[in-house]
Amino acid sequence: MALTKVRGSGIDADGQEIILDADGDTSIAVGTDDVIVVDTAGSERMRVDASGRVGVGITPNTTSAGKSLQINRSVINDDDGGDSGYLHITQNGYYDNAWKYIENGTAEKISLQGGRFTWSIASSNSSGADASLSWTERMRIDSNGFLFGQTAFNSNLTGVLHQHNGISYITTDGYPCVYFNRLSSDGIILEFQQAGSAEGTISVSGSTVSYNGFSGLHESSGIATDTPIGTVVSTTDELDVYSAKQGEAGEEKDCPKAGQTRADHAKVKVSDTAGDKAVYGVVGSFNAQGKVNVASVGIGSVRVTGACAKGDLLESNGDGTAKVQSDDIVRSKTIGKVTIGNSNTGVKLVSCVLYCG
Questions:
Q1: Domain carrying residue 191
Q2: Going residue by residue through the chain (357 aa), what tens digit of pLDDT does each one get?
């Protein structure tokens, strides 16, 4: 068949079907005014209506605003009547002055709008095509991070999973926040890393859970933040109180219990009595609010005066350091046991296992 070239004003089909193949079953037609229909193999494959809505394999559902692309039950729409310029990808839902079902069944929607991604669902419809549809948002990503189950971040709301700057908040009520379930074998359930290296694990063996690389800390207050790590501290007859702020530096937020006393959490002082039976542990670290984390059980480093050998028990020296206990009986004054001896007779940090918490 010879090729016909069209120049100038082009082809005016005057509302008639344009046949594109020899057997006449592939064509472009204007079925009604301002509606373009594309057929292949004798069947309609796509249509573009007067409002710019495109249907592939289906006549596009009516919508009052914006443009849409509909492929069977799936619709891409740039508007929902109030969110001009946004993008909505729906399954079994379309917008026509209000959201409606395409047919029976559940509906799902992903939206890109106002600097956020949202994921929404709608319950199963049994009222047929064009029934009213109500979305329930289940998840979003916005400038605050990742939020599951809520539309705005509040760490006290039930059903929240929120992630921001690598920090996760999981909040529930009446149930555990997280389940870790290792099925058929013993081994590690959770591994903790720092700078890419494993520093500790939680593992299970039969009915026993082990905390590996463990140091038990008690948050407290009462001593200066420049107190050296490993300094021996003792409890006082006063309860600690909650700080005005909580959290890591740069991520601090208001503490709901600011100024309230903390039941069973004692304040501390640098131990000033030799053989002090009120010993609470040793300084492990300080947090962003200046509270001291007292290491009391597990592994830790203790400032010791005088030489010590592995296996020696330690007690307070009365000046914030420890000294070797005179016997091998674990007593109320015992801080812990030396694990790596040191012959230096001065003050130094010594690796120990702590007994006083």
A1: 180-213
A2: 444 554 555 555 666 777 877 787 888 877 677 788 888 888 878 888 777 778 787 777 766 556 778 787 788 777 665 555 678 888 998 887 788 998 999 999 998 887 888 999 999 999 999 999 999 988 888 876 777 776 776 656 555 566 666 667 777 788 888 889 999 899 999 999 999 999 999 999 999 999 998 899 999 999 999 999 999 999 999 999 999 998 888 778 899 999 999 999 999 999 999 999 999 999 999 999 999 999 999 999 999 999 999 999 999 999 999 999 999 999 999 999 999 999 999 999 999 999 987
Question: What is the total count of domains within the chain?
Answer: 3
Joined together, the tokens standing for residue 181 give 């379930």
Same domain, 271 and 331: yes
Instruction: Judge if 258 and 343 occupy the same domain.
Output: yes
β-bridge mates for residue 90, sequence order:
75, 109
Residues 6+ apart with CB under 8 A from 193: 199
**What is the value of pTM for the model shown?**
0.63
197 shares its domain with 219: no
Which among 221, 327, 338, 228 has a CA at the least distance from the CA of 280?
A: 221
DSSP 165: T
